[in-house]
Design goal:
With 377 residues, this protein is α/β, with parallel strands linked by helices. It is built from twelve helices and nine strands. It is 46% helix and 15% strand. The chain starts with 16 loop residues before the first helix and ends in a 9-residue tail after the last helix.
Length: 377
Amino acid sequence: MQTELTREEEIKPEEGVIQRLRDVIARLKPKSAMDKFFDELHERESEFFKETRRILNPYNKDLTLIYPASGSDIKTPLRATGATILVLIDMSWKLEGITKELMEMGAEVKKVSPPLGNKTEIDFEWEGKSRKVLFYELEIKKDELDKLPAEVKEGYDLYFELRPQGMHYLEIRESFINALKVGGFHLATSKEVDTSLGFEKVLLAEKFESYIYDDVRFLIHKKTQNRPAIKDILDFNELFSEADRLRHGGYNGIQEQYQESSLEEYRQVLIKLKKIFDSLPKELKEEFKPQIDYLHYSSGDMSKVHHSPEHWRRMFEERKARGRIPPENEIRGFEADIHRAEHSPHRPTEEQLEGFIKKGRKVFEEVLGSSSSTLTT
């Protein structure tokens, strides 16, 4: 059996912003004021989790939740969803940390079963209901998806992701998306789920739309249907994003000396994109045609041009929108990057962007034709 990490070594979600605030307030205020502040903070947090449960599990049903890269965090998914079976997956042993966290939140641990292979079960009672943790010690790899827990393969109700470690691989995402039941929910903090995958976004009550928990903002999407060709849709979306980046100069920018290599990269991505598009069912082609038209006809966007001040501002705003508040040193770094870009002799111009977009349009037409309407026939 692997050795459990010590309390000092193990990182727990609540020990982010809250612990830093606790340290600051302890230095500035008397203990009574500090206690009052954290009472209010925890009350707000409790209200937030009531709101997530109103959406995810309003009738307190027996739901199965999948939580990859969980660490020992049982408190967050349990409070957020009220799930009955919680399948936690992590590449290192976290059993003692999970058990300790359950007891800290007032759960009664009934039984901890001996490990069976890489699986251990914890039976417990919380809020008057019998529940179970199934912990799998497993590193999720895109070429070993046959090792995923049976609970994933058989279908589940809730996907929970606080830290997206390794989950960006398309093959892994496809497996988890396909197995999530229609009517189930995807709750994550890393990025929006594309509606083309059969999901719709669900908004929290207005007062919680900008709520930050452990440095992140929760994004909730409901699965409304099973879509065909999920892998092709994921591939298309990723290639579309890459194509849009390259039609704005990619990482090199739009300066004359880099244009030839950037346009050749753009060509190669368009060739891959066309191959995926051609393989899609007709109804999906119709659905994705606006994105093809965007690559063909739309004007440039300076905020997507690398090395421009608009680009750095957009990056900063997008990070804030995801709830990931940069620490003070990173904010200063963004400000310095914006200042350098504004005063650089190589600052991209609108004229350069317009010229590059025109060259990119010519490449598009060489690969996909001068009329994108022919692609859907």
